[in-house]
Amino acid sequence: MLGVGGAAVLAVAGCEQEVVERIVEVEVPVEKIVEKTVEVEKIVEVEKIVEVEVMADEEMAEEDDMSGPAAVWRIGIFEDVTTHNFFNILGPGQTAWNFYAFLNRYPSLYGLSDQRFDWVPMLADGFPGPFTEEGDFVTATVKIQQGPVWSDGQPITAEDIVFTVNTVLELCMTEGNWASIVDANSIAMVEALDANTVKYYFHELPGLARWQFGLSGTQFVAKHFWEPLVAEAMASSDDLTEQRAALFAVIPENEPTAGEMTFVKWESGAFV
């Protein structure tokens, strides 16, 4: 685009100044200005409204009574369980699913805290006494709490712990987890000094894996229920392997337990 401008020209001659004025048209480049209208899209956020049905207290009570023993807590697992025999679960029948479904039904003297995995008393009444050398053994004594009972009302005593550990030692169980939990190379035997005192006899001073995170946390069963079943399995053969197989095959109907859950029903391939 070109514009028109004016310019003054001065002519000087001698001492006299004569001013001549004239108009000259000159082409001058200027910036081209273009006006353009741009449409701006307006973005508006819209909240999605979801309708939620809220039950009244009385409706919820009718829907599912969570206050009593009939409450249901559903947990999905990827495989079916295979046994609810305690000795088998920690033996040849060891699977993560058997552990999840059934091991929480049994007590232990010690366990790991849910915060920092500290070694803490469970059924034990405090921590063990110091290790003591007694002849060929290193011993430790543990007190258990008075008052806890099995689900059938029978008291939990030191005899239950002694029976469980000595059964594993007597039958030379090395299948599955038993080889490390009750290691015959470490523990020689266990005895009950009274109803609430357990004494452990080790071949040598046990380390963390054999004591704090091993034998002391071993779960145990009710002697009054399992003793005749173990005796029957041991009487079935003179061979230890066959005796263990007989014990692992036991179906412990109506077994008393002492964990946070009790076993009610198992429908194979569907639920426990």
Q: How would you portray this structure in words?
A:
With 272 residues, this protein is α+β, with helices and mostly antiparallel strands. It has a domain of 186 residues: Dipeptide-binding Protein, Domain 1 (Dipeptide-binding Protein, domain 1, Alpha-Beta Complex), CATH 3.90.76. 21% of the residues lie in helices and 15% in strands. It has seven helices and ten strands. The strands form four sheets. A four-stranded antiparallel beta sheet has the order 7-8-10-9, covered by helices on one side. Strands 1-4 form a two-stranded antiparallel ribbon. The termini are far apart. The N terminus is likely disordered.
List the helices and strands and how they pair.
Layout lengths: L1 E2 L7 E3 L2 E3 L9 E2 L27 H7 L22 H4 L6 H7 L7 E3 L6 E3 L10 E3 L2 E7 L14 H13 L7 H4 L5 E8 L2 E6 L20 H13 L4 H9 L24
Antiparallel strand pairs: 1-4, 2-3, 5-6, 7-8, 8-10, 9-10
Helix pairs in contact: 4-6, 6-7
Explain briefly what this protein structure is.
The protein is α+β, with helices and mostly antiparallel strands and 272 residues long. It contains 7 helices and 10 strands.
Named at the architecture level, the CATH assignment of the domain at 63-248 is: Alpha-Beta Complex
Q: Kindly report the spatial arrangement of strands forming the biggest sheet.
A: 7-8-10-9
Low-confidence residue ranges = 1-17, 48-55
Number of strand segments: 10
Instruction: Give the end-to-end Cα distance, rounded to a whole number of Å.
Output: 90 Å
What is the percentage of strand-forming residues? 5-15%
- Assign the structural class, choosing from mainly alpha, mainly beta, alpha/beta, alpha+beta, or little secondary structure: alpha+beta
**CATH topology-level fold name of the domain at 63-248:** Dipeptide-binding Protein, domain 1
The DSSP helix count reads 7
Mean pLDDT equals: 83
